[in-house]
Amino acid sequence: MIKGQSTKELPEGYADFLGIKYVMDPKILEDQGRSVEALLLARIPEERRDSIKALPTVKSQIREIAKTDAKESEFLDSSMPLRELAFRLILKSGNKSMPLNDLHWTLTEGWAHPTHPMAISVYDLKRIMDADVYYGFHQVTD
After folding, report:
1. Are the C-beta atoms of 139 and 129 separated by less than 8 Å?
2. 24: left (phi over 0), alpha (psi -120 to 50) or beta
3. CB neighbour burial string for 35-45, b if at least 16 within 10 angstroms, e if fewer
4. Using CA atoms, how far apart are residues 77 and 87, in angstroms rounded to an integer?
5. In angstroms, rounded to a whole number, what is the distance separating the alpha carbons of residues 132 and 123?
6. pLDDT digits (tens, 9 = 90+) for 45-102
7. Residue 14: what pLDDT?
8. What is the reported pTM?
């Protein structure tokens, strides 16, 4: 549900997607033979990479990124591609399941601006998330 809204106030089409959430699933990436650690490290400043690599698990690496790097202003930038922004928003949440509607609202209202509009429906965002083969997005439901 969009922060602070009741179901009666939801924009058209949002009610159809209540309960759908996304996470980044490291297993999907590992099954593709891809390095989760490399994907994470590419999103943080070079001087912090050794301290993140020293952490024992992917979960602890994500937690540390969410606690420190994700709070930096340059971690998110509205000029980033849509999937990259979605990935970073999920990382910022500590890889807790993020409702599709919240993700949609953040992308279309929070990160859009006149020179970089994000005019995309919640349905189209779901299709983009489901078609991902790079970031390891995985749909979960309540």
Report:
1. yes
2. beta
3. ebbebbbeebe
4. 12
5. 15
6. 999 999 999 999 999 999 999 999 999 988 998 888 999 999 999 999 999 999 999 9
7. 66
8. 0.85
Distance CA 126, CA 16 (A): 11
- Residue appearing with tokens 């929070």: 110
Contact 91, 66 (CB under 8 A): yes
Strands (E), the chain: 20-24, 98-99, 137-141
Q: Read off the pLDDT band of 33 (50, 70, 90).
A: very high
Distance (Å, whole) CA 126 – CA 77: 21
> C-alpha angle with apex 129: 124 to 135, nearest 5 degrees?
150
- C-alpha radius of gyration, the chain, whole number: 15
Per-residue confidence band for 1, with pLDDT thresholds at 50, 70 and 90: very low
> Residues 133, 10: contact at Cβ < 8 Å?
no
> Averaged over 8-26, what is the pLDDT?
79
Q: What percent of the chain has pLDDT over 90?
A: 64
Cα 9 to Cα 40: distance, rounded to the nearest angstrom: 37
Residue 125: enclosing H or E segment and its boundaries? Answer: helix 122-130
